Amino acid sequence: MEKVRFIDPDTKEEVEFFVVEETKVNGTRYLFVTEEEDGDCDAYILKEVAAEEEEVVCEMVEDETELAAVGKIFAELIEDADIEY
């Protein structure tokens, strides 16, 4: 499973996430990521906001309307997941 590094903009702490699924909506790439490779754990939706040479810049989706819309897409793509948000 692919891993991505995420740097929290507030704390500057680096966190590694496992990419479970990805999709594109209206030309924007979204990643459904988890902290653990398998099992029950917290999951997040990251949104690609820029691409700089070999690095991709993502931010966590916090807008509730956007989160609900993209969350529904991921719920359909990831059949065996019980997604709550």
Describe the structure using short key phrases.
85 residues; alpha+beta; 5-stranded antiparallel sheet; 1 helix; 5 strands; globular
Structure description:
- This protein is α+β, with helices and mostly antiparallel strands and 85 residues long.
- The chain has one domain (3-77).
- The chain has one helix at 64-77, and strands at 3-7, 14-25, 28-34, 43-52, 55-60.
- A 5-stranded antiparallel beta sheet has the order 1-2-3-4-5, covered by helices on one side.
- Strand 2 (14-25) and strand 3 (28-34) form a beta hairpin.
- The chain is globular and about 35 Å long.
- The two termini are 23 Å apart.
Fold topology:
Layout lengths: L2 E5 L6 E12 L2 E7 L8 E10 L2 E6 L3 H14 L8
Antiparallel strand pairs: 1-2, 2-3, 3-4, 4-5
Helix content: 10-25%
What is Rg? 13 Å
β content, as a range? over 45%
Report the sheet with the most strands, covering strand number, pairing sense and barrel closure: 5 strands, antiparallel
Strand runs, count:
5
Mean pLDDT: 86
Strand order of the largest sheet: 1-2-3-4-5
Low-confidence stretches: none
The structural domain count equals 1
The tally of helices reads 1
Order of helices and strands: EEEEEH
Short synopsis of the structure:
This protein has one helix spanning 64-77, and strands spanning 3-7, 14-25, 28-34, 43-52, 55-60. The protein is α+β, with helices and mostly antiparallel strands and 85 residues long.
